[in-house]
Amino acid sequence: MADNPMLKFVGRAQAYPPKRDAAERAADFREIARKYEVVKAEEQSARCSQCGVPYCSVHCPLHNHIPDWLRLTAEGRLREAFELSNSTSTMPEICGRICPQDRLCEGNCVIEFSGHGAVTIGSVEKFITDTAWEEGWVEPLVPGKDRGQSVGIIGAGPAGLTTAELLRRQGYDVHVYDRHDRAGGLLTYGIPGFKLEKPVVMRRVERLAAGGIVFHQGFEVGRDATLGELRERHDALLVATGVYKARAIKAPGVGAPGVIESLDYLIASNRKSFGDAVPEFESGALDAAGKTVVVIGGGDTAMDCVRTAVRQGAKSVKCLYRRDRANMPGSQNEVRNAEEEGVEFVWLSAPEAFDGTDAVSGVRATKMRLGAPDASGRRAPEPDPGSEFRLEADMVVKALGFDAEDLPRLFGAEELSVTRWGTLRVDHKTMQTSLDGVFAAGDIVRGASLVVWAIRDGRDVADHMHAYLKAKAKLPAERAKEIA
């Protein structure tokens, strides 16, 4: 009987791909982890326990076949591992890079519970698909037989791109409309290169364009066409815009020059990485070089901002967050990476006011303590009286999360129904909005969430749109029979 290649977790320690030295990686925007060598990927995959109920798959929004492709990797069957990984995800190498595996698959790995350290699922997922690209195993997008129907997708982020690919495979004419000059949405302009290098995103976009998906870039619905005009142009529409309205801080001095929005800051930095001319960066307004930087917030966007500021050559970088480390929403891996790169975290602290009129000069803050749990179950922060303090700052980045823009007004479609949070209201059985043939998916429905959930929503809505379009195609023939 052949030796079982799996269940090696007892005698084989967990080993992630080595990270580049903090000083080295803080000087550029390249990804911080080196790639696995083949033998290391096989060894780490072989640690999987192949448990009967794979909690890693259960807790993956895409329900990826994780134990199966880990076994194939351990056996050296990389092409088969890629094909299986690719069968449930349109962007496995992107999820492998940016998913918070510590909260999803790896955080629910059975051998993690046993104290042996989770299988390094995300790193293996990234390795499999990067290898597939290098070896030419990634197949071109081949459209299905032409159905004579057209689909419009508003938003070229992960949800929109996933739906575009799946519907193009079904033979639909697919047009993607996006306000930016490059597709990818958050993947392109919101996430820094040290987490997701931009050629990784662009090769996905180029594959879709080569498969016949038409991209309309620099296109704003409401300016270049109303939602109603797009409905006339297409047989079905998907709204997958994401949520991009920054949450505000109500505090004296918040309007001072130098107090900036996180997304403006990240977009400017990512544009520079593409070689674009960015006047706000060149002027210094969105460049942290030589500055004393304070970032306010504790999510992944805040982590992206502090680590970007380090790479831009900031004099110092502090992160001000109102809860403690255990209660922050961002990835703990990102916090560790930031600390290694020289970021200082100021826990249990919240801004009260911003000093400076011609330019911000400091943040006045107060210490917080955690009180009773709020509606979300997390202990609510409350001010600790008499604990005020001040931080010097000549750049403050607000990274408190995002809400939905006013799409009915922006799109010229007041009849588009929204929830009290401003997200689009959908029938969750069909993912259709209040307008016939107009669907919605991703963050614009669920609120600010993870890329992997956007991909899942894109996958689900593609099925619903396909069913709707098939039914719509039959209607004229059925009506003709009734008239006859």
From TrEMBL:
<dbReference type="InterPro" id="IPR023753">
    <property type="entry name" value="FAD/NAD-binding_dom"/>
</dbReference>
<dbReference type="Pfam" id="PF07992">
    <property type="entry name" value="Pyr_redox_2"/>
</dbReference>
<keyword id="KW-0560">Oxidoreductase</keyword>
<feature type="domain" description="FAD/NAD(P)-binding">
    <location>
        <begin position="151"/>
        <end position="458"/>
    </location>
</feature>
<protein>
    <submittedName>
        <fullName>NAD(P)-dependent oxidoreductase</fullName>
    </submittedName>
</protein>
<dbReference type="InterPro" id="IPR006006">
    <property type="entry name" value="GltD-like"/>
</dbReference>
<keyword id="KW-0004">4Fe-4S</keyword>
<dbReference type="Pfam" id="PF14691">
    <property type="entry name" value="Fer4_20"/>
</dbReference>
<dbReference type="InterPro" id="IPR036188">
    <property type="entry name" value="FAD/NAD-bd_sf"/>
</dbReference>
<keyword id="KW-0479">Metal-binding</keyword>
<keyword id="KW-0411">Iron-sulfur</keyword>
<keyword id="KW-0408">Iron</keyword>
<dbReference type="InterPro" id="IPR009051">
    <property type="entry name" value="Helical_ferredxn"/>
</dbReference>
<dbReference type="InterPro" id="IPR028261">
    <property type="entry name" value="DPD_II"/>
</dbReference>
<feature type="domain" description="Dihydroprymidine dehydrogenase">
    <location>
        <begin position="26"/>
        <end position="136"/>
    </location>
</feature>
